[in-house]
Every structure is written in structure tokens, then in C-alpha cells.
Write a structure and sequence with these properties.
heterodimer; A: 115 residues; mainly beta; seven-stranded mixed sheet; 11 strands; 0% helix; B: mainly beta; six-stranded mixed sheet; five-stranded antiparallel sheet
Chain lengths: 115, 112
């Protein structure tokens, strides 16, 4: 049971570099999201998708791009890394169900440091 | 702007004590979820509350959704060291669980 798989687990970037954080899910979920987690701030939504070909911005989208060409994959691209993007990034997926029986499944996270 | 205010941020207690974590908002949510997160892992769902005034129990954990669906609480009875972790509340609007609003989290440490 793979669930939600994120790669890499750790990454160090220099300011100005670009990179893509990978996220894949094998549960055929419609919804996929990217969050960043910073100390004392919980998780904040960066971008989300309600299905292949459909994406929308979350609370903190600046500096990040996403695309959803397949149901399974939802990569997050950092265009020009900045120290303020140092964080732990989580990808999540969920299905469209009833309020009571829907949960978000999270990957193990990518710890990104920008120097 | 944090739409969900979670308190306290840190809680350090002795084994056997009781505790309550609060999650408050000025906005109405369709449902409120509580997650637990271990170091190096992603959050894992504990419970979902949907109806105003709803109370759900999970062994020693009791979750309550406020009557107006703007706030929630998590109460742990007789805490154990295994309860140590980060507890997060998250609100959803409609059935879109792809777009959760999280509280800041509560770091709970239970000392033996």
C-alpha cells in the first residue's frame, strides 16, 4: 500500500535554483494538494487540484507552480528558490465523498532548505 | 490571517493527567477534523466531526464540535507517553477535503 509518495525526502538548494517536488498517489483520488509546514503555523495550503487538468491557488501560492496532467501525479515546482521557502512540504490526496467519511492522506514530507 | 486558532501551542504534562486542546474560528466549517502527526511523518486523521454539538470518543480521546460549527475541542483523559505528538485541527468547507484550513497545532509532551 504505497498511498501518497513524495520525493525527495530532503533537499538543499541555493538561492535562485529551481526544482520540482514530486508527489504520486495510487488511490485514484480526485483531490490533491500541496501544503507547507512552518513552526507555529500549522499547515498552509499552496495549491490544490480537484482533478486532472484543474488546479487552483491556495493561501500561499507565490513562487510555486503546479500542474495535474494525470490523476496520479501532482508535482510542485519552485521557480527560483528563496530562503523564505525553507520549509517542510506535504502533499495530500483525498476522494470526493460524504463529509463524514472523507479524509486527507498525506505523504511523508519533503524537508527543503534554501541557502 | 489564521482562520483557525488552536491553543495551547505547547503542552507538557505528566502521565495520568487530563488535558484539553481548543480550536476556535469566527468562520463556519462544514466539518472539523483532528489529525495527529509524528516527527518525520505526515498528519494522520483521528476523527471527523460534522454536526453542531457532536461528540465523538476514541478510547481516551473525546472530540466535540461546537453548536455553531465554529469551534472544536479535543480532550484526553489520563494521558500516556504514547499520546506525545503534534495535534492539528483542520476545517473543511463543503466536501472539498483538498482545501483544508489548519490550526497552528499543539505540541503535546507526556512525561512518564
Amino acid at each position: 500500500n504505497a498511498g501518497v509518495t513524495q520525493t525527495p525526502k530532503f533537499q538543499v538548494l541555493k538561492t535562485g535554483q529551481s526544482m520540482t517536488l514530486q508527489c504520486a498517489q495510487d488511490m485514484n483520488h480526485e483531490y490533491m494538494s500541496w501544503y507547507r509546514q512552518d513552526p507555529g503555523m500549522g499547515l498552509r495550503l499552496i495549491h490544490y487540484s480537484v482533478g486532472a487538468g484543474i488546479t487552483d491557488q491556495g493561501e500561499v501560492p507565490n513562487g510555486y507552480n503546479v500542474s495535474r496532467s494525470t490523476t496520479e501525479d501532482f508535482p510542485l515546482r519552485l521557480l527560483s528558490a528563496a530562503p523564505s521557502q525553507t520549509s517542510v512540504y506535504f502533499c495530500a490526496s483525498s476522494s470526493q465523498g460524504t463529509l463524514r467519511n472523507t479524509e486527507a492522506f498525506f505523504g511523508q514530507g519533503t524537508r527543503l532548505t534554501v541557502v | 490571517t489564521q482562520l483557525l486558532e488552536q491553543s495551547p501551542q505547547f503542552l507538557s504534562i505528566q502521565e495520568g493527567e487530563n488535558l484539553t486542546v481548543y480550536c476556535n474560528s469566527s468562520s463556519v466549517f462544514s466539518s472539523l477534523q483532528w489529525y495527529r502527526q509524528e516527527p518525520g511523518e505526515g498528519p494522520v486523521l483521528l476523527v471527523t466531526v460534522v454536526t453542531g454539538g457532536e461528540v465523538k470518543k476514541l478510547k481516551r480521546l473525546t472530540f466535540q464540535f461546537g453548536d455553531a460549527r465554529k469551534d472544536s475541542s479535543l480532550h484526553i483523559t489520563a494521558a500516556q507517553p504514547g499520546d506525545t505528538g503534534l495535534y492539528l485541527c483542520a476545517g473543511a468547507r463543503g466536501t472539498s477535503y483538498g482545501k483544508l484550513t489548519f490550526g497552528q497545532g499543539t505540541i503535546l509532551t507526556v512525561h512518564p
